[in-house]
Amino acid sequence: MAVVGQRHARHIIMPPPNLPPHSQHAILTAAVAVPYYQVVPPQDVQPDRPIGYGAFGVVWSVTDPRDGKRVALKKMPCVFQNLVSCKRVYRELKMLCHFKHDNVLSALDILQPPNIDFFQEVYVLTELMQSDLHKIIVSPQPLTSDHVKVFLYQILRGKSPPTMSKVLHRDIKPGNLLVNSNCVLKICDFGLARIEEPDECIHMTQEVVTQYYRAPEILMGAKHYGSGVDIWSVGCIFAELLGRRILFQAQSPIQQLELITDLLGTPSVDDMRTACDGARAHLRRQPHKPPSLAALYTLSSQATHEAVHLLCRMLVFNPKKRITAADALAHPYLDEGRLRYHSCMCKCCLNTNSSGRQYTSDFEPVCHQPFSYTFEEGLTSVRVVKEKLHKFILEQQQGNSVPLCLNPNSISYKSFASSQVAQPSELPPSPHAWD
Ligand SMILES: [Zn+2]
């Protein structure tokens, strides 16, 4: 099952023998002078190095000096440039600290912030994942139907109610689905996430979701949408896992909608209920298209009846008729993925000496504390967010015997400090202005 293991091994770089002791070249160090504290030597010999650059942060692979384990260090630079960016970071940190789910990335620690007057950047430690679904899909490594099933199972498990069903991720794409060498998958990057909005009168932004994975209701200018937008993205990724290519790879939002209607056919008037007038008029001007869902069988030899049946339930134009994460998990296509995951990959079932594998009573666990957005009330200025964020980070560190900070004397510090986030041109295109 190992997909990323061998590839990862090629990137191990041995440091030259005359390097200073580890404590001097590691980026992370203890933030306080603790007499009994000793730096634990790293469990492997990899130097700190960059592993990913997203729209909202830079990620490095580093060693935690407290236990010698490799972890991911995410730098969120220029947090307090404007109210939108600092609220996004605050929300993402809150979510990273709130979620405790095997298929959702969570924060292990946050680096100790400086005095609030010098507080400009936020650094979060998370578990280190060796790869992501995008890298795996475009790699030459074989993807068996077992892989597809166990990946899809974990994506839906991470999205399933009540853990995440009320939280709209809004940017689920292969690059945001991290995978480790055991094929364990974790959903990450909650920078765009928000809670499901029960009031249909409240307008929500359409500036979400990388275009290829954008649900038709968002493409058609719906002012309100629900967790169906994430299921649509998961459906696109399911097809991409089967076919090893992006399902709807269009150059513009209009063409994106065209590719979708080529496959699903022209939607009915009822299925376009939430669309804006301009988008509805655009589709009405187009010649009527019949559905061509049988094309999904040509994705690959793994596109069996069961696979295509589930895929067709996810790729439904009308979000109200689209399958939910919970119902998708109950689909027979995922039975093997569930079995494989809980036989050898999960943390919830245990091997015992006497009676073999002891399975959990609840394969898709319940989150008892729903995520609440009340913390966003009153965040009216950058200064207020800065103070609350500073306080929140200090609160998170209570109970940590040794808080961490950056080591400016380390050999990697300069390149870490200068690493930047994506340029605006690399960000997803804006939604189409219909009117
Ligand atoms: Zn389990």
Q: What would you call the structural class?
A: alpha+beta
Oligomer: single chain
Mean pLDDT: 83
Question: What shape does the CA trace take?
Answer: globular
Distance between the termini: 50 Å
CATH superfamily of the largest domain: Transferase(Phosphotransferase) domain 1
Portion of residues in beta strands equals: 5-15%
What's the structural domain tally? 2
User: Measured on Cα atoms, how large is the radius of gyration?
Assistant: 23 Å
CATH class of the largest domain: Mainly Alpha
Largest β-sheet summary: 5 strands, antiparallel
* Poorly predicted spans: 2-22, 423-427
Q: Which percent range fits the helix content?
A: 25-40%
CATH fold type of the largest domain: Transferase(Phosphotransferase), domain 1
- How are the strands of the largest sheet arranged? 2-3-4-6-5
Number of helices: 14
GO molecular function: ATP binding; MAP kinase activity; metal ion binding; protein serine kinase activity
Subcellular location: Cytoplasm; Nucleus
EC number: 2.7.11.24
Cofactor: Mg(2+)
List keywords for this structure.
31% helix; 435 residues; Phosphorylase Kinase, domain 1; 2 domains; Mitogen-activated protein kinase; transferase; binds zinc ion; 3-stranded antiparallel sheet; 14 helices; alpha+beta; 5-stranded antiparallel sheet; 12% strand; Transferase(Phosphotransferase), domain 1
